[in-house]
Write a structure and sequence with these properties.
- The protein is of the alpha/beta class.
- It contains 16 helices and twelve strands.
- The protein has three domains: 73 residues, DNA polymerase, domain 1 (Orthogonal Bundle), CATH 1.10.150; 191 residues, Rossmann fold (3-Layer(aba) Sandwich), CATH 3.40.50; 55 residues, Arc Repressor Mutant, subunit A.
- The chain is 40% helix and 12% strand.
- Strands 1-2-6-5-4-3-7-8-9 form a nine-stranded mixed beta sheet, with helices on both faces. It has a three-stranded antiparallel beta sheet with strand order 10-12-11.
- The longest helix has 16 residues.
- The chain is elongated.
- The two termini are 40 Å apart.
């Protein structure tokens, strides 16, 4: 970890130097060991490793470098509350996650917030990435939360990106399922974000981010002050998959960023798993494509543990819904009519007109029943006037 202002200044200068990207920076570090030694070299010596333009750039102080150094040092020296630590972990540091050293493009630095000590013994075999749609169906939201809860209860760390939808539900589930004592020093969840750690994006997840920092870790490769820039999020996905032995895609459209994460996982030699859904749901088509291409079809948390060659004794939860034993009498307000309506819905999204054609019930009664089931959390309302049965994962 960075321990002095001088050390911090040299690392930030290397990262901010125009024209010197991560690959070139790693080559320089391989030659001279530490950033401070790089800036002591002559142009002639530098040009043995980098181009003439890059050598000249390394000899000049980057714009805004000193201000950012002062700001970052102040950030490192304070804490939002007792028990939450801040750190800047550099490439080659003992606390740098070993799994990221295996990927093609490890970040030079990782800004960390939360239970920093948990990073020291972080084991890739006990980390699972969970990603998916920012606009999941009600069932997708439940699946993400319940799978994460069950896997965290088995002692795994859930890695995700703190985005709306599946990411947030995965973090929430991991915190709910976390063991009273951290198993093998592993945190229940790690959030890898695409902004500087001096801000929370999206703002709706401010409280969730605080809970993660209290019990897990938030990581970013981006300097303080970095806003939520669109190119940063696909890039940070390589860290989500890179930290994890397997990536589970909960729900994703064909153009989803989650498919980028799955592709990066495959390139990194990691496992890819996907939860199937309705053939009529756009949010399931990305998962179905992954399964066609060889991803592990997952129906329960046991499937995930088996794919990762981990014990399944503690696993909890399954996607299977409990069958109903009630008959189809359509009496408004009783359990039999509710069960009959759920069976008529099936598990695919359905319109009010289609549902009425199946049931033959008066519109007013049908709408009342749907509202009651919605309030009970058994039916979700989708865009386009569709309804979908919701079951616990």
């Amino acid at each position: 970890m960075v321990n002095t202002p001088e050390e911090l200044a040299s690392w930030l200068r290397l990262a901010l130097t125009p024209g010197v990207g991560p690959e070139t920076a790693r080559r320089l570090l391989a030659t001279w060991g530490q950033p401070g030694a790089i800036f002591e070299q002559t142009d002639t010596a530098l040009q043995q490793v980098v181009s003439v333009l890059q050598a000249h750039a390394l000899r000049e102080a980057p714009q805004g470098w000193r201000e950012l150094t002062d700001e970052t040092w102040r950030w490192l020296q304070t804490s939002p509350e007792p028990g939450i630590a801040r750190a800047l972990i550099t490439l080659g540091d003992p606390d740098y996650p070993a799994a990221l050293l295996e990927i093609p493009d490890p970040p030079l630095m990782l800004y960390a917030l939360g239970q920093i000590g948990a990073l020291h013994g972080l084991e890739i075999g006990h980390c699972v990435a969970m990603v998916g749609s920012r606009n999941p169906t009600p069932q997708g939201q439940i699946n993400a939360r319940e799978f994460a809860r069950s896997l965290a209860a088995s002692g795994l760390t859930i890695v995700s990106g703190l985005a709306l939808g599946v990411d947030g539900a995965a973090h929430e589930g991991a915190l709910l399922g976390a063991l009273p004592e951290v198993k093998n020093g592993m945190p229940p969840t790690i959030a890898v974000v695409g902004t500087g750690l001096d801000r929370v994006y999206p703002r709706q997840h401010r409280d969730l981010a605080h809970q993660i920092a209290k019990r897990g870790v938030i990581l970013s490769e981006y300097p303080l002050g970095t806003p939520p820039l669109a190119p940063n999020f696909p890039r940070r996905n390589r860290l989500i998959s890179g930290l994890s032995q397997g990536t589970l895609v909960v729900e994703a459209a064909l153009q989803s960023g989650s498919l980028i994460t799955a592709k990066q996982a495959l390139e990194q030699g990691r496992d890819v798993m996907a939860i199937p859904g309705s053939i009529h749901s756009a949010q399931s088509k990305g998962c179905h494509l992954l399964i066609k291409q060889g991803a592990k079809l997952v129906e329960s948390s046991q499937d995930v543990l088996e794919e990762l060659n981990l014990p399944v004794e503690q696993a909890q939860g399954t996607l299977a819904l409990q069958p109903s034993s009630a008959n189809d009498d359509p009496h408004h307000g009783d359990n039999k009519s509710e069960d009959a309506l759920l069976r008529a819905m099936g598990h695919d999204p359905v319109s009010l007109d289609a549902l009425q054609a199946r049931c033959g019930w008066p519109t007013a009664n049908l709408q009342a029943q749907l509202l009651e089931l919605e309030l009970m959390g058994q039916v979700g309302r989708l865009p386009g006037g569709l309804f979908q049965r919701v079951g616990s994962a």
